[in-house]
Every structure is written in structure tokens, then in C-alpha cells.
Amino acid sequence: MREHITFGFVGIGLIGVQLRKALRRVYPSCKIIVYNRSAEPRVMSINDGTANIAVPQVNETFNECDYIFLCTPVEKNVEYLKILKDIIKDDCIITDVGSVKGNIHRAVKELGLEKNFIGGHPMAGSEKTSYTYANDRLVENAYYAITPTDAVSKERVEEFTEIVQGIGAIPINISYEEHDKVVATISHLPHLIAASLVNLVKHNDSKNEYMKTMAAGGFKDITRIASSSPTMWQHICSQNRENISQILTDYIQLLTEAKEQI
After folding, report:
1. Burial class (CB in 10 A: 0-12, 13-18, 19+), 19
2. How far apart are alpha carbons 113 and 116 in whole angstroms?
3. How far apart are CA 100 and CA 120, in angstroms?
4. What are the angstrom distances between the C-alpha of 74 and each of 9, 97, 199?
5. How far from 23 is each of 52, 124, 163, 218, CA to CA, in Å?
6. Cβ-count burial of 132 within 10 angstroms (0-12 exposed, 13-18 middle, 19+ buried)?
7. Neighbours of 226 (CB within 10 A)
8. What is the pLDDT along the chain (262 residues), one digit of tens a residue?
9. Do 82 and 105 form a contact (C-beta atoms < 8 A)?
């Protein structure tokens, strides 16, 4: 890891904040530049020391960044790629934290940014999305998927992997195609199941709401993630629809078999 490094963050959501806090803890001398559309998170970033510079738009300030993390919703990350294309220096690496990788990898190829991109996905999400829920330890011991392009240099992949390890996460180098199949099964499908269970209770409960009242730990554990941002999950599902549809078909078949056995 080089001694002086500058990180940029586009978007200040939960994942972006916890990564910034972790980077500040591990690399205290690093410079961090952040952008967020609303002003309050920008002010909070300066006040808590997780940003040296906070800007109201993605502009030439990001030209000095060695790494830029895209931390906006998955479909918005592509829009910022287009802006950054004409701003970044030649050896800047853009990464993202989105839970779907296919769409951004395709956009990177179309924009000619393959030598400047390493996809990323820290598996340390939460149903909570507010700035205040982030801390500098949330990514510790969490798996961190790394999906480099074929054109990015081996040295930059190694350095990025070192950064991921430095903040305590466990890197997994995986193709973006395989990543999207995996998360469709272990992340996106569970959310759909949780949301459907919540709706099942809502539509089948009595006026006394005994189902809701008597729901204990097991049900609450299964349905906890259903309280996540519905807009965020709408975007995720739309971007990974083919993989989710396939695994959902397989799951429905298993439920059908279970029903027949019962």
C-alpha cells in the first residue's frame, strides 16, 4: 500500500460511510473526497473527519483520486461513470459497491473504461440505510467480492485486494457473471421470500392480528430484511432479473415438492 493515497466517494449511503470510516481508521493519512446530492451528509462527513473535502457535484475535484467508490443505487452508478470518464486521471481505479455487477461491467466496456475498473461488493449490508448506523467495523470479517475486468492491471488488482484486506474484509476474486448468480440465490431471493412472508401474514391475519402479535424470534429473523428500502430492492431486482427469475423458478419447484410431500 502506497504511503499517500486519495479516495473518492460518490454517494454517502450506509456502505459508503462504513468504508470511509474503515479507511480513515486503517489509513489515517489518506485523503478522502466525497460527493452527495443532499447537504447534510456532506456536513456530517466533514464534521466526523471521514472526509477532507465534500462537494455538491461530481467535478474536477475527483481528478486527483487514486480510487473512486461508486456508492449510489446500482442504476445511478452507471450515470456517474459517464461523468467520471472525462474527469479521472489515467491510472485512477473506479470501483463500486453494488450488489449487481453485470450492468456496470457492460457499461464500463461500452465507455472504454475497462483498464480503470474493478467491481466490488462488500457483503456487509443491513436493512438500515441511514448514515448514523455506520461504523468503522461493519466490514470486518465480511466477504468482499472483487470483480476485475480483463484489462485492468494485475498490480492494481493486487493493491485493491490489499486495501480490502487492510480494512478487515475477506476478498473473493470472482467473475461478475458468477457473482450475479450467487447473490441472486443468497441475497436477492431471501429478500423476496421475506417480503412475501410479511405480505402473507398481512393478508391472512384476523382483525385481532394474532399472527402479528404472536410472531416470535424465528419469524422476525426470517423477515427482518423485508424492512429494507423498497426502492433500492426494486432497482436491484430489475438489474438482476434473469438470475433471480431462474433461481425463483427452482425455489418454487422445491416448495411445490414440499407441498406434495405434506
Report:
1. buried
2. 5
3. 10
4. 15, 9, 26
5. 13, 15, 8, 36
6. exposed
7. 19
8. 676 899 999 998 788 888 999 999 999 999 999 999 989 989 999 999 899 999 999 999 999 999 999 999 888 999 999 999 999 999 999 999 999 999 999 999 999 999 999 999 999 765 455 555 556 677 899 999 999 999 999 999 999 999 999 999 999 999 999 999 999 999 999 999 998 999 999 999 999 999 989 987 888 888 887 777 777 788 888 999 999 999 999 999 999 999 999 9
9. no
pLDDT digits (tens, 9 = 90+) for 176-210: 999 999 999 999 999 999 989 999 999 999 999 99
| Dihedral of the alpha carbons of 130, 136, 139, 141, in degrees to the nearest 10 | -150
Task: Map residue 130 onto helix, strand or coil.
Answer: coil
pLDDT digits (tens, 9 = 90+) for 125-139: 654 555 555 566 778
Alpha-carbon distance 20 to 137, whole Å? Answer: 11
- How far apart CA 68 and CA 70 sit, in angstroms, is 6
- Return phi, psi of residue 7, to 5°: -110, 140
pTM flag (> 0.85):
yes
C-alpha dist (Å) from residue 233 to 72, 242, 247? 13, 15, 17
Which element (helix H / strand E) includes 8?
A: strand 6-10
Cell of 250: 427452482
Burial grade of 166 (CB within 10 A; 0-12, 13-18, 19 or more): middle
What is the residue type of 198? V
Percent of the chain as helix, strand, coil, to the nearest 5: 55, 15, 30
